[in-house]
Amino acid sequence: MPTASASESSSNQPESSNASGSIDHVLVEERLFHPSAEFTSKAVISTEEQYEKLATAARENPDEFWRAEALEHLHWFEPFDTVCDWQPPHAKWFVNGKTNACYNSVDAHVAAGRGDRTAIIWEGEPVEDGQPRDQRTLTYAELQTEVAKCAEGLTQLGIGVGDVVSIYMPMTPELAVAMLACARIGAIHSVIFAGFSAESIAERNNDASAKLVITSDGLYRRGKVLPLKATVDEALEKSPTVEKCLVLRRTGDDAPMQEGRDVWWHDVVENQPGQMAAEPLDSETPLFILYTSGSTGKPKGILHTTAGYNLWAKRTFEWVFDHREDDIYWCTADCGWITGHSYIVYGPLSAGATCLMYEGAPNFPAEDRFWDIVERHKVSILYTAPTAVRAFIKWGDEHVDKHDLSSLRLLGSVGEGINPEAWMWYHKKIGGEKCPIVDTWWQTETGGIMMSPLPGITPTKPGSCTRPLPGVVPSIVDELGNSVDSEHGGKLCISQPWPGMLRGIYGDEERFVEQYWSDVPDKYLTGDNARCDTDGYYWIMGRIDDVINVSGHRLSTIEVESALVSHPDVCEAAVVGRPHDLKGQAIAAFVTSNDRGHDDEFRNELKQHVRKQIGALAQPDDIRFTAALPKTRSGKIMRRLLRDVAAGRELVGDTSTLEDLSSLAKLREED
Ligand code: WTA
Question: Secondary structure of the chain: what % helix, strand, coil (to 5)?
């Protein structure tokens, strides 16, 4: 455990180079923030001993530990016999048990007499007379009826156990209902983020042999209506396995319905009796497929199954978000991403939480929408992404200052490393210096959070996801697969199976083995680099591909980016390597800034700034200014594309997940 007290200086001395092939780290962060005594006194995990006990039990007697967890935290229609059947790389958890993720998320609360508790508070995007036009709350009992009706509708449409249902919907309660209804009957949902193209939908439908698509007429985004159904129609021309399309009326716009194929939600779902019970399902019944981009461009259908995933989502939610009875919890992700699956739907609902769900953009009708929502709904836990935090910084403090954020008690971050300066802003401006920040590291593949502070006990360091959760046994290895010492970066692996782990890539066993289990024997390869400091804190250094090798020093891009972002005039930075005759690789930086002129003076100033922060070694060779960085739709910077731009290559690979293609065009024009 670190013992230093909070201080606000950071010193940055480059480490010397090393021969083992590990990655040098150059950015040293020494600020440390303790939770308040008040926070700790009420926390779910409130002492270091409690954490140690859980972590030790899960590491040393995983079977015993997870048996007790599963019995206490999931409902079992039939008991399991074996806790974990581990035939690397294949795991089966809670073998031969029967449970249901929808039952655990909804019915269990009603059965326990808590049906009147609010499950979902929903707010649509449109605003009329300064107020949100569409708002709904659903209690757990109401959610149960809605989900049962949808399950009845799906059954009527011929959907049953093992059928794949693609869901391409706006962030409405019906999206969560549709997911849960699939889980209720044992159908496999494949949620496709409602910003993807017809081509991407068709690719996913075909890869999974989807039988049904659930969509809506349209979607509100930044005040405009996007015609979802029209996009689905185009996709369905190339999706031969899809038999039916279920359409929710959301915007009321024209949505042509194809006779025999397309049916309205209000015809098929709303008039059902709402009585259908949750089906007892084998623990390993596939729960969902979620497509995530891969290095080759072809998206991978990550497969999660019922019991292990459900338990992991629930317990990690309870541990990390310190969930209490009166919390209003808001995860700003979209259900199209794993964060929405695990921390809008299965995790919080299994824990009986009250979840806020917001349909629209953070800057509609103005840049203060999020803070307006926090104030009106008295949100106590906010979970968002660094890309959003950086956007808020860019938009200006005045939008935050208009609102009373005193209801907040805990903040979370996910999706990317949060640069220390963005962390500090989040801490001060949003958290009022009183809310712990949980920087949660995990992946679509891991099903739920793997490393994170426990907010009641873990002193936080800006930029570190701190320590593994109970049951997570990380190891960091060098190029040769040997463990590296603390303070050295290397490939982050997980060496013990955990309940939420992916069970495969749908329909592609070979790729599953090759991608995650070949490089380092018997360990799950995360694809990220990390280092562990002498306090046992982990620092994610970016994807393995993102390492830059400058004159034999292997540097992580995120450290150089964080140094750039710490300059007051920089909003966002992306750093990549480009070929260089002498050094092997040169450092190319792409920078967005507020009001500064994009001239050589500013360029030089930034180079000097990085030099001062982390040393001459990491000084960027090129700096390009740009209005926006190309990002995936989930907000991650697409470094792969930037590498091509920096090297002057034509763009290659899949760009289907790119959010703003025009930002790429701009990059090429500038400079
Ligand atoms: C990155 C999102 C640093 C990482 C839940 C990981 C992070 C990938 C963090 C997974 C974090 C996510 N700090 N990096 N707190 N959280 N990442 O599948 O590279 O969309 O491998 O899952 O995001 O992204 P995915």
Answer: 30, 25, 45
Ligand 1: distance of its center to the CA of 557 in Å? 15
Residue 574 phi, psi (nearest 5): -130, 135
- Considering just the CA atoms, what is the radius of gyration of the chain in Å? 24
| Residue 41 known to bind ligand | no
Residues with CB under 6 A from ligand 1: 292, 337-339, 414-417, 439-444, 465, 526-528, 540, 543, 634
C-alpha distances out from residue 304 to 182, 379, 528, 610, 663, Å:
14, 30, 21, 42, 34
Using CA atoms, how far residue 303 sits from 178, 286, 447, in Å, is 18, 7, 9
What's the rounded Cα separation, in Å, for the pair 136 and 632?
30
Neighbours of 420 (CB within 10 A): 20
pLDDT per residue over 391-448, tens digit each? 999 899 999 999 999 999 999 999 988 999 999 999 999 999 999 999 999 999 999 9
The CATH number of domain 545-669 is 3.90.70.10: no
Is the pLDDT reported for residue 656 higher than 90? no
**Residues 346/657/625/605 CA torsion (nearest 10 deg):** 40
Is 222 annotated to bind a ligand? Reply is yes
Query: DSSP letters along 300-354, please?
Result: EEEEEEHHHHHHHHHHHHHHHTT--TT-EEEE-S-TTSHHHIIIIIIHHHHTT-E
Q: Whose CA is nearest to atom 5 of ligand 1?
A: 443
* Averaged pLDDT for residues 114-132: 97
**pLDDT tens per residue, range 185-239:** 999 999 999 988 899 899 999 999 999 999 999 999 999 999 999 999 999 999 9
Report the distance separating Cα 590 and Cα 578, nearest Å: 12
Three state DSSP letters for 463-510: CCCECECCCCCEEEECCCCCECCCCCEEEEEECCCCCCCCCEECCCHH
Burial of 14 (0-12, 13-18, 19+ CB in 10 A): middle
Closest CA to 165 of 183, 195, 186, 187: 187
**Which residues have C-beta within 8 Å of that of residue 46, sequence separation ≥ 6?**
40, 456, 457
How far apart, in whole angstroms, are the C-alpha atoms of residue 500 and residue 494? 12
pTM of the model as a whole: 0.91
Q: Which residues pair with 164 in a beta bridge?
A: 188
First-to-final CA distance of the chain: 47
Residue linked to tokens 């279920």: 246
Both tokens of residue 144?
């149960």
Q: Are 507 and 301 in contact (CB under 8 A)?
A: yes
Q: Do residues 371 and 391 touch, judged by C-beta distance below 8 A?
A: no
From CA 396, how far away is CA 419, in angstroms rounded?
Answer: 18
- Atom 7 in ligand 1: residue holding the nearest Cα: 416
* Rounded Cα gap, residues 643 and 633, in angstroms: 19
Domain ranges of the chain: 98-361, 545-669
Q: Helical H runs in 101-197? A: 101-102, 108-111, 140-156, 173-185
Short-list 292, 375, 293, CA closest to 330: 375
- Which residues, in sequence order, are bridge partners of residue 476? 492
CA 291 to centroid of ligand 1, rounded, Å = 15
In the block, residue with structure tokens 């596939």: 286
Strand, coil or helix: 575 = strand
168 within 8 A of 242, measured Cβ to Cβ:
no
Tell the CATH topology of 98-361: Rossmann fold (3.40.50)
Mean pLDDT taken over the chain: 92
